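USER: Study each token:
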Amino acid sequence: MAKNKDSKTVNRTGTFDMDKMQIVAESKDGFQTYDLKALLQEFDGEQLSFTLASDFNPSHLVKE
């Protein structure tokens, strides 16, 4: 028997600023800044799954 489950999903796409803990996204209406720390505080104490994705050049590759 399947369990009923409520979930909360947040998706923010933009440029991440580690020092400010912000994500800045550009849209047709201009720029929007998201406070990542405030967003994560909404999940404080909850069990969660956390995924980050970005196109980047991996620094852990060994060049032959």
